[in-house]
Design goal:
four-stranded antiparallel β-sheet; Serine Threonine Protein Phosphatase 5, Tetratricopeptide repeat; elongated
Length: 723
């Protein structure tokens, strides 16, 4: 086991002997039959080694020998079965090479041959088994081609055949196992197609079909493995479907069975590998449910995989999975605010992946995984402030990805991730004080992605990366004080973004336009964006009008700027310190209305600090209270509140049952303010609001976490006067 180079040598030696036998004894058909099997077995080995071009040659050689045999002996079921298997195997290879149309043809040939075998030899169950496998393989190709309905038809055809076999031969565990596996595989596909409920049904069908097999046939560990696999995949589905507690139960069921198997048979490598995968699924679930426990679970995964790799260094899958687990743990640690530990895990992944690439340079997946590890380690090192090391990682990733895109120009993923790394390098150089050098990185990214988006305008990931690259270049041009060029990139970023998500880019475009002297367009942007509920939006619009006033000296622009600043404070803007020093507002500072606004903002700021720090005694309030409850049917409750112009109100939402979220709207439903937590230690919500007009407002009580329920209290305190 695990010595592929030696195995290939032996297979080729065997083929040489069989070819000589065929040449010396052409009248003995069994020698040709064995030769066809030898070609097909060598093809399967080459397929495992990802040497698909050579595997195709061997499969075609097997078919060539088999077709001649079947032509001479059309009534021999063995020759016909072997030829059908060779067509199916060639279909697998062609699908892997991306030749899906040709793969589909081969699988349909195999299925047609198996149908005829079933008709001619109905007493041979193996023909029905082979036909079921053919339907499954054809389903895989149709799925990869995006023909989901046709794919599901093929999977269900296989399941129907296997159900009948199980019913006819209930004493044979293999047929129950095959049926369970087909349910399991269809569940995987349905999960991928975004049909979680149907996928769950298939996983549960797999579990029901095979749940008794491990106890009835304890000598056959493959049944325990299959059952554990179904539990594990059901756990993954439940976790991704927002049911982490149920998911943990399934992973625990898988782990319990596999742990028993490994204890009984410590040399069972598949059981150990499956056990590591079950712990991996559990770690992913804990990351969502109990993040502090997830790293420990990953350590269990790594411990199993390290032992497997040490014992069997020639088994590539063990080494690849170990690198992948280091990579996953690095992501978890980075997201958890532990960048130093994260970069060490990326380093461990890189060390393994470098050796895999050196030994198997033709396996493109190894090369891309290594490049991604370099890229992600660069991100973490940049966060740590280690810019030189981060740049080295980005450039290492770029070198690998450049060669990949040259070798595989038709794989868009490689072009997209190459552009992503160029973009990351651009951000690093710009933020490190090298904006001119940064532009080259963004230029490289945009050039590559523009070609791809032009070819495939619907490619969402390519559009997203192209948007990010234009955004990065626009920021860099703004930093270089080249707003005229930045305007073009902000506009491009906007055009690549869904309508509902364009506001951030529109604000940046507006600011670049005003600095480029495009007053009419910038002021038009400001009037449009000022209607937004965002406090930062109103503030930016005020800055645009202030800058227009600085250039034109028109009083109406200054008055509009002050008006927009008032709106920003009404919507929750509180950064008084920034207001005092923002150079964009310098043309307003001599105005009385601006000074009055500044003084009012300071008073509001001081009031808020008093309230947030618990210094309520300095103020007197009139308090009213509303009580309510969130239920599964009613996840938010609205409370009408009368407020008077010029009065300040403190609104509190308190609950012991859930993490609160409070929203304040006007009578028309326009968002005025919202708050999740009062502080890191206080998960209740508080809004301090000064009404601009006397009206009925709506205080909406809801939960930060969707689905949370329980009772709550809304307190409305109207500030009367200071003591």
């Amino acid at each position: 086991m695990g010595k592929p180079i030696v195995a290939e040598t032996e297979y080729r030696a065997g083929l040489a002997i069989k070819k000589k036998l065929v040449a010396d004894f052409p009248s003995v058909p069994d020698y040709r039959y064995r030769l066809a099997i030898g070609h097909r077995n060598l093809a399967r080995l080459l397929r495992k080694l990802n040497r698909m071009d050579l595997a195709e040659v061997e499969d075609r050689a097997a078919i060539d020998v088999g077709e001649k045999l079947v032509a001479e002996f059309p009534d021999d079921p063995n020759y016909r079965s072997e030829l059908a298997r060779s067509h199916g195997d060639l279909g697998i290879v062609l699908a892997t090479l991306g030749k899906r149309d040709h793969a589909e043809t081969e699988h349909r040939i195999a299925i047609d041959m198996q149908k005829k075998l079933m008709a001619d030899f109905p007493a041979i169950p193996a023909n029905r088994v082979s036909r079921a496998v053919g339907h499954l393989l054809l389903g895989d190709v149709l799925d990869d081609s995006g023909r989901l309905d046709q794919a599901q038809t093929e999977y269900r055809a296989a399941i129907e055949i296997e159900k009948k076999l199980m019913a006819e031969f209930p004493e044979l565990p293999k047929y129950r196992w095959d049926l369970a596996k087909s349910h399991y595989d269809l569940g995987n596909r349905l999960a991928k197609w975004g049909k979680p409920d149907e996928a769950q049904a298939e996983y549960r069908a797999a579990i029901d079909t095979e749940k008794d097999l491990p106890a009835q046939f304890s000598y056959a560990p493959e049944y325990t493995l299959a059952l554990a696999g179904a539990f594990c995949n059901l756990g993954n589905l439940l976790r991704d479907g927002g049911q982490p507690n149920d998911a943990l139960e399934r992973f625990d069921q898988a782990i319990a069975r596999l742990s028993d198997l490994v204890q009984k048979e410590p040399g069972h490598l598949f059981a150990r590998q499956f056990l590591s995968k079950s712990h991996w699924g559990r770690a992913q679930t804990l990351d969502r449910l109990k993040p502090d426990q997830a790293p420990m679970e990953y350590r269990v995964v790594l411990d199993i995989q390290k032992k497997l790799t040490a014992e069997f260094p020639e088994v590539l899958e063990y080494r690849r999975e170990l690198a992948s687990s280091h990579y996953d743990l690095a992501i978890l640690l980075a997201n958890g605010g532990k960048p130093d530990r994260a970069q060490a895990e990326y380093r461990a992944a890189i060390d393994i992946q470098k050796k895999l690439v050196a030994e198997f340079p033709w396996v493109r997946e190894y090369r891309h995984a290594l490049a991604q590890s370099h890229n992600n380690r660069g991100i973490v090192l940049a966060d740590l402030g280690k810019r030189d090391q981060a740049e080295a990682e980005y450039r290492a990733a770029i070198d690998i990805k450049k060669k990949l895109t040259a070798d595989f120009p038709d794989v868009p993923q490689y072009a997209i991730t190459l552009a992503g790394t160029f973009c990351n390098l651009g951000h690093l150089l710009r933020d490190g004080g090298q904006p001119n050098d940064a532009l080259e990185g963004f230029d490289q990214a945009i050039a590559r992605l523009s070609v791809l988006v032009q070819k495939e305008p619907g490619h969402l990931l390519a559009r997203q990366f192209l948007c990010n690259s234009h955004w990065g270049r626009a920021r860099t041009l703004d930093q270089l004080k080249r707003p005229e060029e930045a305007v073009k990139d902000w506009a491009s970023a906007m055009s690549l973004t869904p309508q509902k998500e364009r506001m951030t880019f529109h604000h940046a475009l507006m600011l670049s336009r005003i600095r480029a002297g495009q007053f009419e367009l910038a002021l038009k942007d400001a009037d449009h964006l000022a209607k937004s509920a965002a406090k930062e939006g109103a503030y930016d619009c005020a800055c645009v009008y202030a800058l227009a006033h600085a250039k034109t000296k028109e009083d109406k622009h200054a008055a509009r700027a002050v008006e927009l600043l008032r709106q920003a404070f009404t919507k929750g803007f509180r950064d008084v310190a920034h207001l005092k020093k923002d150079a964009d507002l310098d043309s307003l500072r001599a105005r009385d209305d601006f000074q009055q606004l500044l003084e009012a903002a300071k008073r509001t700021h001081d009031l808020r600090q008093n309230l947030l720090t618990g210094q309520h005694a300095r103020h007197r309030f009139i308090e009213t209270k509303h009580e309510g409850a969130l239920t599964a049917e009613k996840r938010k409750q609205a409370h009408p509140v009368e407020m008077k112009a010029g009065r300040t109100y403190v609104l509190d939402l308190e609950s012991k049952a859930f993490d609160t979220l409070m929203i304040l709207e006007d009578a028309d439903g326009t968002l005025l303010a919202e708050n999740d937590d009062i502080s890191a230690a206080n998960l209740n919500s508080r809004i301090i609001f000064t009404a601009q007009r006397t009206a009925t407002y709506r205080v909406i009580a809801t939960a930060f976490t969707l689905g949370s329920t329980g009772s709550y209290v809304v307190r409305i305190r109207e500030l009367v006067r200071e003591k």
